[in-house]
Specification:
Chain B: It is found in: Cell membrane. The complex is a heterodimer of chains A (382) and B (336). Chain A has a domain of 74 residues. Chain A is 33% helix and 20% strand. Chain A has 14 helices and 12 strands. In chain A, the strands form 2 sheets. In chain A, strands 6-7-8-3-9-10-12-11 form an 8-stranded mixed beta sheet, with helices on both faces. Chain A has a 4-stranded antiparallel beta sheet with strand order 2-1-4-5, with helices on one face. Chain B contains 14 helices and no strands. Chain B has 336 residues and is mainly alpha-helical. The two termini of chain B are 28 Å apart. Chain B has one domain: MetI-like fold. Chain B is globular. In chain B, 64% of the residues lie in helices and 0% in strands. The relative contact order of chain B is 0.14. Classes of the chains: A alpha/beta (382), B mainly alpha (336).
Chain lengths: 382, 336
């Protein structure tokens, strides 16, 4: 639950006291964890196949998404992680149909068999908010400052249902109750500036679930909030997921959030998925150096023998001029000539576990995958 | 809170304290106010706006009640069209200076604003002019604001060819001198009454507001709450009218008031050219142009309508200023 404790396999060398502390912390934080929530079903809700998104600019074509495929099942939480510019937000905006007009979108996005990309704009609009809803990153700017909370919530209902305004407001009140805002009927008349950041994000969650959607896209829903509020919001999200029976597409750059929230995880780099698998597989058995690098660059409460983080050197490549071969090769400690000439395809490395790396076997054999990113500290260099 | 006030003041101490504590414990010690109440409070605390409101109210009341309008009978006994004997070179008989300051005390006299050269009562004329000018100014401002807002919002929100077409039309209207189009319209609708005249005048003054609103909308359409509204499936029309335009209210109100003020002046200019209000009817602008040569011999024929023009323009501007501040829910501090 907490973003401070990403699950790293408990190494045998960890002192028992540390393990106890972690367990205790988890018990305190995790009033509701993924394990408590209802398990995913086999039913396929959203299928994205070979989606590419390009933006023509004066400097050349920006290849923001270069082919991403995934399937979201009912009640499943799929985490998409990646650093800024890896295409995670753009791919989800493509699902919402909210990309600017100049975007060139190819591939297919199917919601229960209907292709969203070939659909008429008005049909797509009618799905938005009713079947596929979105929670935005910054609750401070995602609510209209001049309209009351109740108005904005009711609007989400009225956009899809021919009901009296009063009934829509009643629904809005129910939703505020559900997301845990006290005195909901009074709060309907409040304006966004009268709410704190955490409360506004609750309102955004209420707005997303007000029409009982099948899919909730949460685009970095906790980035703008502080850590304690983050935990509450994520908990609330899991709670409402069960309440409305929705699947969640969780987009984030926070591995801690993914660890506590997602059934499956998809790691993106330079517009492409580089590793897909169950969250445990991705966290405990990374088969792509980038994933390992991400895991090594966050502080951990356990198993950090030399007490230093292992950051990934360099910066992500320009999406206009991608390097030949694997886009991660310039930063990869395992890179060989093979990596610099041919871009690896996603290949199965385990059951339901895919990775795009020529050297996933090397990682599989390694005891600690993050150790490849070890950079000598100043005292060692001397 | 109310129960505590109902207690007799002598015995209220203990129960009131207990009540307040209970209120605080429940988090209920805040008095809820509706948005309308808040707007009214903010507006009334804005001194300039309040003064403008009072001045505007006085001008309107005076203009309507004195000579009457339509079925409303007036208390002033003279008609703006009625000619008569020029008394005392038509000097104003209005006296406001009290006797102990060397004045004649407060009295209206026979012709408080004086008379013109053919003996018409200038008070009645000014009142009629004020009525006509107000109707033209308000109607013109309304039409110009509606058209301008609509054009600007649609162009700014939809972009693409819609924007190109609308803004090129706007450019063309701007490129032609306003007075020229307005004059042309004046000729076309001459003698069809002031309402038609005002509507057409509004149809050639909307360009400024259209550009202003388009600029605002261009910025607002990129806001996250607009994206959030789209993500719940809100229709474009609703996004424009419910999300974007309320956020441009400040700009619209201020430019609408400026528009009303400038409509008074445009009407003056057109009347001066003989293209505005046609005789025997009159307006403040027409009065000024009619008696422009009398400035040296009968200055009151010039400064009475002038004072009313300034009064109307100023009071409307102050009201607009107050409205803009009052409508902004983000504003917590009231100007003093």
């Amino acid at each position: 639950m907490s973003s401070l404790t990403p699950p790293v396999p408990p190494a045998p060398s960890v002192p028992e006291t540390a393990a106890n502390v972690i367990e205790a912390a988890e018990e305190v934080h995790a009033a509701r964890t993924l394990a408590d929530s209802r398990p995913p079903a086999d039913e396929e809700i959203l299928t994205v196949e070979n989606l590419t998104v390009e933006f023509p600019t004066d400097d050349g074509v920006v290849r923001a998404v270069r082919g991403i495929s995934y399937t979201l099942h009912a009640r499943e939480v799929l985490g998409i992680v990646g650093e800024s510019g890896s295409g995670k937000s753009v791919s989800s905006m493509a699902v919402m149909g909210l990309l600017p007009k100049n975007a060139r979108i190819r591939g297919s996005i199917r919601y229960r068999g209907q292709d969203l990309l070939t659909m008429r704009p008005n049909d797509q609009r009618s799905l938005r908010g009713r079947k596929i809803a979105m929670i935005f990153q910054d609750p401070m700017t995602s609510l209209n400052p001049v309209r009351s909370i109740g108005d904005q919530l009711a609007e989400a209902v009225l956009a899809h249902h021919l009901v009296p305004r009063k009934q829509a407001l009643g629904r809005a009140k129910e939703m505020l109750d559900l997301v845990g805002i006290p005195q909901a009927d009074r709060r309907l008349r409040s304006y966004p500036h009268e709410f704190s950041g955490g409360m506004r994000q609750r309102v955004m969650i209420a707005m997303a679930i007000i029409n009982d959607p099948d899919v909730i896209i949460a685009d970095e829903p906790t980035t703008a909030l502080d850590v304690t509020v983050q935990a509450q919001i994520l908990e609330k999200l899991l709670e409402v997921k069960d309440e409305v029976n929705a699947a969640i597409l969780m987009i984030t750059h926070d591995l801690g959030v993914i660890a506590g929230m997602a059934h499956r995880t998809l790691v993106m780099y330079a517009g492409k998925p580089v590793e897909v698998g169950s969250t445990d597989q991705v966290f405990y058995e990374p088969r792509m150096p980038y994933t390992a690098g991400l895991l090594g660059s966050i502080p951990s409460l356990e198993g950090e023998r030399d007490g230093r983080l292992r950051p990934i050197g360099g910066t992500p490549p320009s999406l206009i001029h991608l390097p030949a071969g694997c886009p991660f090769s310039p930063r990869c400690p395992l890179a060989t000539d093979e990596c610099r000439s041919g871009e690896p395809e996603l290949a199965a490395v385990g059951e339901g576990h895919l990775a795009a790396c020529h050297h996933s076997d090397t990682l599989a054999e390694a005891e600690d995958a993050t150790a490849f990113f070890h950079t000598p500290g100043p005292e060692e260099a001397r | 809170m109310t129960t505590q006030n109902a207690e007799p003041s002598g015995t209220a101490k203990a129960p009131a304290a207990a009540g307040a504590a209970a209120d605080a414990a429940q988090g209920m010690s805040i008095v809820a106010r509706s948005q309308g109440q808040l707007v009214r409070r903010r507006f009334l605390r804005h001194r300039g706006a309040l003064a403008g409101m009072i001045l505007f109210f006085i001008v309107v009341t005076l203009a309507v009640s004195s000579i009457g309008a339509g079925p409303i009978p007036g208390w002033w006994d003279k008609d703006p069209t009625e000619t008569g004997q020029v008394v005392a070179a038509g000097r104003p008989t209005l006296s406001v200076l009290p006797e102990f300051l060397g004045g004649g005390g407060f009295h209206l006299g026979e012709h408080p604003f004086g008379q013109d050269n053919i003996g018409r009562d200038y008070f009645a004329l000014t009142m009629r002019g004020t009525q006509v000018s107000l109707v033209i100014a308000l109607l013109t401002g309304l039409v110009a604001t509606l058209v301008g807002t609509l054009v600007g919002a649609v162009a700014g929100y939809f972009r693409g060819w819609t924007e190109s077409v609308l803004m090129r039309i706007t450019d063309v209207v701007i490129a032609i001198p306003t007075l020229l189009i307005a004059g042309l319209i004046g000729v076309i609708v001459a003698g069809r009454g002031i309402v038609i005249f005002a509507v057409f005048l509004g149809l050639c003054l909307w360009t400024q507001i259209a550009r202003l609103v388009r600029g605002e909308v261009l910025a607002l359409r990129e806001k996250e709450y607009v994206e959030a509204a789209r993500s719940v499936g809100t229709r474009s029309r609703r996004i424009i009218f419910k999300h974007i335009l309320p956020n441009t209210m400040g700009v619209i109100i201020v430019s609408a008031t400026l528009m009303i003020a400038s409509a008074v002046l445009t009407e003056t200019a057109l009347s001066f050219l003989g293209l505005g209000v046609q005789a025997p009817d009159t307006s403040l602008g027409r009065l000024i142009s009619d008696y422009r040569t009398a400035l040296t011999v009968r200055p009151w024929l010039f400064y009475w309508p002038g004072a009313f023009i300034i009064g109307i323009a100023l009071s409307i501007n102050f009201i607009g200023d107050g409205l803009r501040d009052a409508f902004d829910p983000r504003q917590t501090r009231v100007r003093d």
